[in-house]
Amino acid sequence: MKSVFAILILALVVSGCTTRSKARAQAQAGAQQAYLAGQNQVLQQALEMQYAGVTILGPVQTSQVPWVEGLTLAQAIATANYLDPKPPQQIILTRQGDSATLDSSVLLKGAVVPLEQGDVIELRP
Fold first, then answer.
1. 70: phi > 0 → left, psi -120 to 50 → alpha, else beta; which?
2. What is the pLDDT of residue 22?
3. Which residues contact 22 (CB under 8 A, 6 or more apart)?
4. What is the CATH number of the domain that holds 85?
5. How far from the centroid of its chain's Cα atoms is residue 64's Cα?
6. Do residues 39 and 77 both lie within one domain?
7. Structural domain boundaries, residue 5
8. CA distance 67 to 12
């Protein structure tokens, strides 16, 4: 009888330890998930900050132009410092995956094309 009682107590002690180890493992897994979620949030914020401006592709001195309220296409090209002596033949504006091709003569005639954060402009000479 004493041996059965000892086996039951031993079984309770062992199962208690297993429960504690499982609790520790679950707590560690939860902490790890929280850490990874925080890391993902930091990376997402870094990506958003990386594209906080307007990108100009083509013969320019500076391809990243900081976006400010009211920024226009002409201002962005001037800020990027267009290097070709001739005006671009085509200007391709890409916004959220949609592209539109503009003739540079329209821009030279004074048309105001407002830009949005994250726009990509390609200047083709």
1. left
2. 76
3. none
4. 3.10.560.10
5. 15
6. no
7. 1-50
8. 66
